[in-house]
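Hi everyone,

Forwarding the result from last night's run.
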Amino acid sequence: MAQDGARLTRRRHDAPRERAGRWALAGLAAIPLGFLGLFFAWPVAAILGLGLRDGGRGTPVGVMLTSGETWRIVGFTLGQAAAATVLALLAGLPVAFLLARCALPFRNVVRVLVTVPFVLPTVVVGLAFRALLPNSGVLAIVLANAFFNVAVVARTVGGLWAHTDRRAEDAARALGASRWRAFTSVVLPALTPAISSAAAVVFLFCATSFGVVLILGGARYRTLETEIYLRAVNLFDLRGAAALSLLQLAAVIGALTLGAVARRRRESALALRGRAETARRPQGGEWVVVTIALVVVVLLLTPIAGLVLRSLSTVDGWGIAGYQALLGVGARDALSGVTGFAAAANSLRTAFDATLIAMTLGVLASVVLSRLPRRRPLLAGAMDTALMLPIGVSAVTLGFGYLITMDALPGDFRTSPLLVPFAQALVATPLVVRTVLPVLRAVDERLRQAAATLGASPFRVWREVDLPMAGRALLAAAGFAYVIALGEFGATSFLVRPEAPTLPVAIARFISRPGELNNQMAYAACTMLMVVTVLVVLAIERARVAEVGEF
């Protein structure tokens, strides 16, 4: 009886604290979800409604959805995305093995070199492959999209591979299994959750690729993303663009759902396996895999090297005319009176603002999601998926949605300099969540409970327990958010003011204008962006995040 009375008293004492915790969690969730609703859901719904309602201008939805041309574009979108995904998986798995299992002195260098392509601006990658493969069409598009995403495979799969129990593989080998059979029967099934998660994310990135397809495909090869752009901007066919946006949105939700399921399985596997296995020097046939991984790294460096060489190539030989010309406005005033270096300054400033916003939203969302799964898994899954949607919805749809909705906010928000950082933050926030959330979920709940028992408020619990353990993940998330915002092109190209272009927008303007000087400036500006990206990635690697917190 005495024990029952003490238990009842403890429950009554804890009930107000639990209710306060739930209200605090709801308040935290309201901030990122409110931002998402105001600056994503509302503009996208408005543009879709404008295009789909009766009397809208352009191709009727039924005609668009039953058109053979539409489904040819859908087929090409899915086909090139599938091909690039397969290629990224084949190239990324050997690199994942090297990063996860091999104790080699150059492993950290490989990690940096593999990460750089993932955070390069799409315009930079498009120009790099156009310089390397001038007339390759579909091949260049597939290679460029795979080039982007090898890092996703290498670091997602490598994170789980480092936690798989090597003893099971060694036992299979001791029983007479070949190295290949041990891999396919023991290792590969254990890696399936991470491979599935990586494949879903890579497919999503490739299916919604904009800058790469726009530069390399031109008018001949079109995906859903570039077709939406063509119809909305060139033809002003809002109904046709809205119909295509619905198709794209359905595909994105499907990919995100599959990725979420695979990610939950991956996190369960990590929880069961605990700490990472100790890396060792490759043995026997493992050197073949290491050699393949190093070949992949060299191939990843080839477009980057070609881009740098092209920026130094002039009609008169080698020189820095393109870099010197960035002090001016380009041939035929390509930037409307703005110098190339002024555009670079605009990029740095806008990316900084976007990073602050993305970190605020992403950290708050990660805190909420790290608390929800045990009690509300469906709610957590829905919130997680909603936060990921901006990376898969057409930048054209979002940009036009801003133009028709933001005038309803005080002061006609369409002309606000904050609009571009807000749009960039929407793209960067999912990456912040994917980097920080796994680390917060890995924090031992008993530490939080002990701090709360000692009288710490929820904020103090987070400050004293979660923050020290997630510090490196937060630094990495901030760095990745910065380079993603720095290179964002899709939405920025619609929202940026003519007198304040960012560097990716300036590059697009340079290559759209005739003249050798504009081409040289475009390649020089790409090299500048790439150098900044490399420096940020190096800084991230110095703050090394635990493997489970990557991607």
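The longest strand covers residues 313-314.

Cheers,
N.
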